[in-house]
Inverse folding.
């Protein structure tokens, strides 16, 4: 039985898209990628907890919208930073 990941890779290959070259990374680099993802996930979880707490305290629709916008921007920044770090690590290999 194939995993969802393997099935997705097969669909990509049928479309002419190459498989990601994870094998090009050393075990140490894979551990670093996992650590980067773990740290980003922790920061995102913290951000979401704080965001939900702030939303509970707000009643003004404009303030709610502002908080939502700030949350989306910060979440995007954390995700972008995570991807930049991973890309930099992969480029070094």
């Amino acid at each position: 039985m194939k995993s969802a990941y393997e099935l997705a890779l097969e669909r990509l290959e049928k479309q002419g898209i190459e498989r990601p070259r994870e094998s090009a990374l050393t075990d140490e680099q894979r551990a670093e990628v996992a650590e980067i993802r773990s740290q980003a996930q922790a920061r995102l979880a913290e951000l979401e907890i704080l965001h939900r707490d702030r939303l509970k305290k707000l009643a003004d629709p404009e303030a709610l919208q502002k908080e939502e916008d700030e949350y989306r921007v910060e979440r995007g920044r954390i995700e972008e930073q995570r991807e930049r770090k991973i890309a930099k690590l992969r480029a070094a290999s």
Observations:
- The two ends are 32 Å apart (CA to CA).
